[in-house]
């Protein structure tokens, strides 16, 4: 199954790039002045020219289990003792995770001020040739669970329409009916607005908490503007954690204020990386937000559920079943798991031996989100050799690499010649839940993100140039 490409290539690329610029599929290149954003340095986000052929049954499988994963994530976030046990080794060696835990530990001891929470979740998968359809209900292998700052949820909604446009102008209209519908932008905006409305103060603001000089502006602004479409009374403002360190405060009833405005909901698009915190004052501001009665997306415990060690703990026998009572559902979730190894004092020497023998079969992952931190194959051995204290490995997990399928496509990227390449794809399924106390009151599957990259590239960031946004053509 292939797409015809007989159109003038320059005209086609121009059309794709024009679509990107007129539909918010943009990001900003770094400015020479590191202290300011240069608005004349906008690039289109990398996109594929055509959608990727994908099994309809696998896509539907991923969609069908999303709300079950979200229920499990919420249940884990409610279990203080489970998280404490799961994270105990990591917080001995990973200062970032330790600081996050200390915030949770403090608010748990004080008592949670705001029982309402919003979780925006993205589950990432790859189709794995190592999984036999004869022995497994799915060939999907879960790469990771994202519980904070799930990026490209808005931008991805524009890509299927871009590909519909490309199919039309290249005379491939017979495939239009097979494009997977993607209404993720509307669904995520619905989650944010619904949660903000539960704060029950129309004068409160919804804060997008972002990094300074954010480059991935198209994705974030698309979501902001969609929220405003849903509720005309809503006011959205963008602040950094440094802004809250300087000007944030909570009053006697735990109302969160900044610049005189009451904050109803804080949506974190930052604070998932140690580099986002410049000082202890920034960490104090993160605690300030968590102690307040503002609704958080996510709250600190849901953020911690996204730590890789928690994903590894779920791989262990009986752990999923602790949180998912329906065994048939638990089996469906487990069918997507790959081999994962936590690293402890007890198994440290065995893990090092495993790396020495089979490093090409694994990826070494730290606890945090944001991409660019993973170590692959032979580089793992080099990294281990460079450690003066091998116990530092306890801040990582070891994950068996999947064997993805390849496909042929073109990537439209600024400054690159259009050429057919062998590519692999990673599918992300979005969703959201809203909870009040110990109960989920809204739980919805969203749309999807497809990131496609050269088969020989390890990392998968779009704005960092590793991957391209893509969409699905279902068969």
Automatic annotation (TrEMBL):
Q: Which organism is it from?
A: Brachionus calyciflorus
Q: Is Hydrolase included in the keywords of this UniProt record?
A: no
Q: What is the protein's given name?
A: Glutathione synthetase
How would you classify this enzyme at the top EC level?
ligase
Residues bound to Mg(2+) are: 144, 146, 369
**What keywords are annotated for this sequence in UniProt?**
ATP-binding, Glutathione biosynthesis, Ligase, Magnesium, Metal-binding, Nucleotide-binding
GO MF annotations in UniProt: ATP binding; glutathione binding; glutathione synthase activity; magnesium ion binding
InterPro entries per the UniProt record, alphabetical: Glutathione_synthase, Glutathione_synthase_a-hlx, Glutathione_synthase_C_euk, Glutathione_synthase_N_euk, GSH-S_sub-bd_sf, GSH_synth_subst-bd, PreATP-grasp_dom_sf
Could you tell me which pathway this protein works in?
Answer: Sulfur metabolism; glutathione biosynthesis; glutathione from L-cysteine and L-glutamate: step 2/2
């Amino acid at each position: 199954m292939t797409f015809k490409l007989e159109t003038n290539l320059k005209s086609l690329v121009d059309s794709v790039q024009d679509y990107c610029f007129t539909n918010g599929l943009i990001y900003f290149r770094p400015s020479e002045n590191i202290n300011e954003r240069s608005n004349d340095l906008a690039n289109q986000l990398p996109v594929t020219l055509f959608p990727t052929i994908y099994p309809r049954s696998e896509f539907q499988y991923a969609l069908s289990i999303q709300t079950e994963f979200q229920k499990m994530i919420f249940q884990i976030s409610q279990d203080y003792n489970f998280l404490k046990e799961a994270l105990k080794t990591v917080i001995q060696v990973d200062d970032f995770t330790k600081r996050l835990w200390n915030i949770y530990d403090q608010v748990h001891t004080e008592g949670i001020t705001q029982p309402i929470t919003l979780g925006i979740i993205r589950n990432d998968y790859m189709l794995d040739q190592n999984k036999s359809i004869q022995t497994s209900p799915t060939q999907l292998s879960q790469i990771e669970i994202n519980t904070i700052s799930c990026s490209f949820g808005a931008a991805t909604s524009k890509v299927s329409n871009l590909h519909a446009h490309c199919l039309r102008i290249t005379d491939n209209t017979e495939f239009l009916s097979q494009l997977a519908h993607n209404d993720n932008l509307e669904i995520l905006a619905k989650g944010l607005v619904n949660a903000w409305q539960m704060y029950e103060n129309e004068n409160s603001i919804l804060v997008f908490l972002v990094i300074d000089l954010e480059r991935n502006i198209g994705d974030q602004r698309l979501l902001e503007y969609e929220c405003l479409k849903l509720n005309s009374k809503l006011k959205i403002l963008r602040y950094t954690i440094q802004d809250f360190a300087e000007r944030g405060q909570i009053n006697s009833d735990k109302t969160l204020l900044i610049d005189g405005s009451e904050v109803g909901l804080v949506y974190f698009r930052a604070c998932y990386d140690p580099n986002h915190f410049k000082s202890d004052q920034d960490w104090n501001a993160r605690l300030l937000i968590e102690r307040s009665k503002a609704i958080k997306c996510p709250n600190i415990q849901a953020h911690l559920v996204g730590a890789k060690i928690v994903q590894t703990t779920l791989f262990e026998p009986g752990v999923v079943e602790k949180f998912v009572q329906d065994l048939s559902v638990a089996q469906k979730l487990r069918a997507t798991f790959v081999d994962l190894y936590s690293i402890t004092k007890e198994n440290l020497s065995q893990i090092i031996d495993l790396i020495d023998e089979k490093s090409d079969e694994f990826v070494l992952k730290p606890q945090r989100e944001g991409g660019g931190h993973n170590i692959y194959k032979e580089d793992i051995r080099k990294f281990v050799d460079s450690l003066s204290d091998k116990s530092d490995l306890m801040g990582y997990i070891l994950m068996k690499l999947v064997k993805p399928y390849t496909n042929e496509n073109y990537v439209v990227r600024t400054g690159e010649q259009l050429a057919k390449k062998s590519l692999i794809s990673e599918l992300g399924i979005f969703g959201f839940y809203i909870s009040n106390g110990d109960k989920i009151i809204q739980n919805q599957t969203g749309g999807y993100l497809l990131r496609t990259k050269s088969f020989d590239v390890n990392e998968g960031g779009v704005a960092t140039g590793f991957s391209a946004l893509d969409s699905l053509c279902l068969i």
